[in-house]
Design goal:
Elements (H helix, E strand, L loop, with lengths): L2 H24 L2 H8 L1 E7 L1 E2 L3 E3 L5 E2 L1 H13 L2 E7 L4 H6 L5 E6 L3 H4 L2 E8 L2 E7 L14 E5 L3 H9 L5 E5 L2 H9 L5 E5 H10 L5 E9 L2 E6 L3 H17 L1 H10 L9
Parallel strand pairs: 1-5, 1-6, 9-10, 9-11
Antiparallel strand pairs: 2-3, 3-4, 6-13, 7-13, 8-11, 8-12
Length: about 260
């Protein structure tokens, strides 16, 4: 065999070996989780009600409950890894985390670098108001006053569905919008679920609650590219949890509404 042929054969074998190792590694996350009896899940700790630090200094929220739920169904211990919006995807790419459960929305840009499971929870904008104020549908907003942040998604969505005689009062930021409702300047407020959660917790005397859905933007679980075995296993758990009503129960606990019809 000539030196040229030997070199070509060696490079071909090396390439095949590299591809084989890469493929095995790409499918190894679930095996590693089950072997070590441990799954590492990145979660938020600064975004209530999905993830925040409680008075006991431990993480809590919908995303934390979801992480623990998946760990329990797998029969493994859960290691929670606090992340920020800026570094959560990097935790998957560098193998620091097996999953990211941190209010991740799915879009084409993110799908280029990570994979996603089915949706596990809603993320939404809604109309909130006092428990004593009935609000059957958007037509019932006619003649009522609603605080909203100018130009925000909830402003756009509310404008589409509210009757022409709705008194929509627009403010320049979320703080001013919430303050207007809390101080009684408006009867209702249209805002995102995270803003509403803070408002309700800080002002329990208001007796405010979720009334009408404006827009749903579901959350998905992030998985490293190529980890199909883990992704499909998590999808099985989510599908079973959806059928059993467990996802609805967790959403009601933290969001005040069921998870609803989530995309798969």
């Amino acid at each position: 065999m000539t030196p040229t042929k030997r070199a070509f054969l060696a490079s071909t074998i090396a390439l095949a070996a590299a591809l084989g190792v890469g493929h095995a590694h790409a499918q190894s996350a679930l095996d590693g989780v089950m072997k070590n009896k441990l799954i590492k899940i990145a979660i938020p700790t600064d975004f209530p009600p999905y993830g925040f630090v409680g008075i006991d200094l431990k993480p809590q929220g919908l995303d934390i409950d979801t992480a623990n739920y998946i760990g329990a169904k797998l029969g493994v211990k859960v290691e929670l890894l606090p992340v920020t919006s800026a570094n959560r995807i990097a935790y998957l790419q560098t193998k620091k985390a097996d999953l990211v459960i941190s209010t991740l929305g799915k879009n084409p840009e993110r799908e280029k670098v990570i994979d996603f499971t089915a949706a596990y929870s809603p993320f939404f904008q809604a109309v909130y108001g006092p428990k004593s104020a009935a609000l059957a549908d958007f037509n019932a907003l006619g003649g009522k006053s609603v605080a909203v942040t100018r130009g925000a998604i909830e402003d756009q969505e509310l404008t589409k569905v509210a009757p022409a005689n709705t008194d929509i009062k627009r403010f320049e930021d979320n703080n001013a919008t919430v303050s207007a409702f809390v101080s009684g300047q408006t009867q209702f407020v249209a805002t995102g679920v995270s803003v509403a959660d803070n408002m309700i917790k800080r002002n329990p005397a208001l007796g405010a609650e979720y009334k009408l859905l404006l827009k749903d933007s579901p959350n998905f679980i992030g998985v490293a590219k190529g980890e199909d075995a883990l992704r499909l296993k998590v999808n099985e758990i989510l599908a079973a949890g959806k059928k059993a009503g467990d996802l609805d129960t967790m959403a009601k606990k933290w969001l005040g509404r069921p998870a609803g019809n989530l995309p798969e």
